[in-house]
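Final report, section 2: Outcomes. Of the targets proposed, Helix-turn-helix domain-containing protein is the one most frequently requested by collaborating groups, and we therefore present its record in full.
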Amino acid sequence: MIRREIGSNLDMISADEAARILRVSARTVRRLCIDRKIPAVKVGNQWRIDRTELMRTLGRDSRMSCWLGMDGK
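The predicted structure is given below as tokens.
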């Protein structure tokens, strides 16, 4: 994950919000976070995902986009 300056304008979302965007379960998102398949940081007992980095990751990793059903097919 890319380090950023404190106070930068991040669009952080929860695992539940990421699950809705990706159309998978929150459990799947948490597993992807643990496996470092998507960029995330754990705050307490919750995962926070940078929405912009998530979309960049999906754009770079065509296998993941295909696996998530986001390849347009």
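DSSP finds four helices and three strands in the chain.
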